[in-house]
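hey
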């Protein structure tokens, strides 16, 4: 048995930051209040959308993930500063053979109700995720695992049916966080996650559509958090959210839209941090519905959309890439910029005519009611009008939108993908693998030859070979117009200057373990 060193250095450019609120000073705070007056350690985050749920087993969206990270923990994690995959609840691992992962767990960790964290909890969590009856949206992360053993309290053995080259990055995904079996059996932790994790904060309450409250876990195994309370406040109107940051009703937000960026940058009480990010925003198609099952129609749409002009409206918050796998993910190569489709209305009209639609057609574009997508949708609608595609907008609240797309009811749709692991495979498999239809493959993409290529990016242990497959897949999916990539995010975090210690990452997510207020 050969012991392997822990730590996989991600080949993507490091794009994470420990947000420390540069420009602030302790003297400023001391001048504003008595030195013996304690600062209330309550942090309010404003989110455009409510969480879909608070169980890692049953969710797959960013709003939920930001809550999950406070309550639960994974076996491994991506270091927000170095990009390395490193142990969290795990201590180490070995590979006695390519299809066996022996994971040793840390000792003396407890769930928030005092129950010891052991291998049985890992086994319970993963087996529930893999149970088809659960319909876990991210079961794909460990689909290759066909047997789980817990030979003692601190050893878990994962047996895979095929080699799985991205096992550790998968085990670092928020949706593979370990749940407390006792809490899960006692109730619905997707609505009430009290004592359901090992994380630094304990779920307290959820008022749907308004807020979720977490409180500190005083017995947290990495030390008591400095924050007493974290509130995830739902504020669908961006202008309202920005005002709340400015007047101190809220403490921080992410994804600052371009029209509000300068306003916050120029506010002396607010610090704005910007990083090149990996989230991609795109126009998608339902491949099971005509006319978008026709490559020439998809190419026409891509030619008709002027991405450069749209990015110019983003005030520096977006950058262009033609590929499905963007520049900040493993598997990207700049060769992809020689593929894709540049803005060319005449070419778009020609392709529509060749596809049998010389006079255009009517289509429905489904969109979730976030500010970002509500801005994109009318732009896409207007651009497609130029080639006689008459687009009707179908606007849904976020949870309804996700259910609508999961069921395959959409014709065209606007969406985004933020990659937690930083690996291109973690985009291809959930988004385009045929067995992900009904879960996260909203385009209902189903092509056997592409399934085969996706699997190669997933099972190949030789990382050089695996990256070669990712590059090949990027070219093929881009040429096939699996999506029309509109732009990649430059991610932003705006916070009151007295907020310190937020770990902000290139996927637009954050950790509050070490956060506090001065």
């Amino acid at each position: 048995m050969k012991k392997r060193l822990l730590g996989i250095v991600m080949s993507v450019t490091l794009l994470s930051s420990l947000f420390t609120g540069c420009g602030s000073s302790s003297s400023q705070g001391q001048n504003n209040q008595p030195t013996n007056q304690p600062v209330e350690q309550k942090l309010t985050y404003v989110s455009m959308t409510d969480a879909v749920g608070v169980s890692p087993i049953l969710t797959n969206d960013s709003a939920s993930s930001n809550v999950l990270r406070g309550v639960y923990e994974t076996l491994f994690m991506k270091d927000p500063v170095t990009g390395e995959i490193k142990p969290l609840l795990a201590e180490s691992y070995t590979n006695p053979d390519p299809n066996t992962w022996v994971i040793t767990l840390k000792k003396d960790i407890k769930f928030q109700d005092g129950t010891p964290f052991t291998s049985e909890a890992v086994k319970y969590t993963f087996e529930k995720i893999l149970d088809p009856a659960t319909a876990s949206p991210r079961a794909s992360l460990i689909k290759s695992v066909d047997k789980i053993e817990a030979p003692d309290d601190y050893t878990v053995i994962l047996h895979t049916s095929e080699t799985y080259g991205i096992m550790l990055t998968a085990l670092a995904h928020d949706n593979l966080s370990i749940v407390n079996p006792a809490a899960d059996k006692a109730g619905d932790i997707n609505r009430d996650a009290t004592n359901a994790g090992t994380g630094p904060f304990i779920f307290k309450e959820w008022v749907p559509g308004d807020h979720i409250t977490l409180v500190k876990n005083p017995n947290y195994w990495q030390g008591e958090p400095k924050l007493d309370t974290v509130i995830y406040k739902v504020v669908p109107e961006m202008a309202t959210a920005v005002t709340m940051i400015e007047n101190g009703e809220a403490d921080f937000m992410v994804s600052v839209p371009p029209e509000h960026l300068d306003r916050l940058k120029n506010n002396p009480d607010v610090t704005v941090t910007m990083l090149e990010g990996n989230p991609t925003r795109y126009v998608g198609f339902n491949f099971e519905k005509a006319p978008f099952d026709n490559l020439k129609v998809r190419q026409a749409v891509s030619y008709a959309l002027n991405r450069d002009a749209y990015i110019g409206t983003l005030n520096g918050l977006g950058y262009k890439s033609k590929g499905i796998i963007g520049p900040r993910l493993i598997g990207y190569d700049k060769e992809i910029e020689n593929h894709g489709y540049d803005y060319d209305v005449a070419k778009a009209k020609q392709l529509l005519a060749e596809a049998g639609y010389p006079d255009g057609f009517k289509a429905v574009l489904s969109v979730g009611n976030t500010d970002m997508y509500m801005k994109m949708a009318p732009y896409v609608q207007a651009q497609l009008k130029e080639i006689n595609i008459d687009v009707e907008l179908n606007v849904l609240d976020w949870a309804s939108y996700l259910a609508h797309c999961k069921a395959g009811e959409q014709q065209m749709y606007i969406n985004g993908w933020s990659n937690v692991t930083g690996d291109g495979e973690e985009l291809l498999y959930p988004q385009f693998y045929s067995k992900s239809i009904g879960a996260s493959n909203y385009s209902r993409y189903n092509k056997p030859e592409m399934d085969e290529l996706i699997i190669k990016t997933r099972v190949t242990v030789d990382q050089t070979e695996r990256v070669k497959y990712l590059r090949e897949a990027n070219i093929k999916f881009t040429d096939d117009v699996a999506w029309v990539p509109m732009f990649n995010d430059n991610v932003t975090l705006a916070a009151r200057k007295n907020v310190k210690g937020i770990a902000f990452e290139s996927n637009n997510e954050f950790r509050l373990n070490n956060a506090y207020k001065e």
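The chain has two domains: 43-269+497-517, 276-490. The first strand starts at residue 8 and ends at 9.
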